[in-house]
Structure formats: structure tokens, C-alpha cells
Amino acid sequence: MKKPVSFKTTTEEATKIAAIVARATGIYPHINEEDTKMDITATHANGCPLDLDKLLAADDSNFLHDVIGIIRHIDRRSGQLINCFLPRYALPEATHADD
């Protein structure tokens, strides 16, 4: 039996993720806010922790690379990234499903 996707984050992490989502929807309004929040949270909590501060401070190009990449490459059944995608602002110890 597979373990369920975790959405467990600290209050501080959740606040930063909300800021990331707000910025992403401001740049690219076609992004679904709730889905994106869940995708970033699941990525962070399920094997690919993100440097949320650096992601939030990134220039638009690198910021969107990571956010759109997460949206496109998350396995919503496991919360892990697939297709060898690794965000630029993943913490060094991050791993993902295709390794």
C-alpha cells in the first residue's frame, strides 16, 4: 500500500509557499492558485525540499522555471517529481522519484 501524499509544512513554510503562489499568479494569471499551492507543498514535503526563500527571491525566469516545472512534472499520486525534473531551487539533499 502506498503512503498518502504529505502536505505537512511548518507555518513559516506555508506562508512562504502562499507568497510564491501569489507571485506566480501575478506573473502568469492562468495558473490555478489552489492546485499550484498543493503542487509546491507536495513537492516540498515529499522528497524534494525547496529553498523557499531563494525561490521567492529568484528572477522571473528562474522562478517560473521552477514553478511551471513543478506543475508539469509532479506525480499527484505520490507528491514526487517525475521525468527527471529537479527545480533550480531544490535544496542540495533533494531527491526525486526517477533517480
In short:
This protein has helices at 11-27, 33-45, 52-57, 60-73; strands at 74-75, 80-81. The protein has 99 residues and is mostly helical. The chain has a two-stranded antiparallel ribbon with strand order 1-2.
Describe the protein.
There is one protein chain. By secondary structure, the chain is mostly helical. It has one domain. It is built from four helices and two strands, in the order ααααββ. The protein has helices at 11-27, 33-45, 52-57, 60-73, and strands at 74-75, 80-81. A two-stranded antiparallel ribbon has the order 1-2. α1 crosses α2 (33-45). The two termini are 21 Å apart.
Which descriptors apply to this entry?
99 residues; two-stranded antiparallel ribbon; 4 helices; disordered C terminus; single chain; mainly alpha
Shape descriptor reads: globular
Q: What is the typical, i.e. mean, pLDDT?
A: 92
Category by helix and strand content: mainly alpha
What is the H/E string?
HHHHEE
Rg on CA atoms, Å: 12 Å
Could you tell me the strand content as a percent range?
Answer: under 5%
Q: Which ranges are low-confidence, i.e. pLDDT below 50, for 5 or more consecutive residues?
A: 95-99
For the largest sheet, list the strands in their spatial order. Answer: 1-2
Largest sheet: 2 strands, antiparallel
Oligomer: single chain
Level of helix content?
40-55%
Distance between the termini: 21 Å
Count of alpha and pi helical runs: 4
Number of strand elements: 2
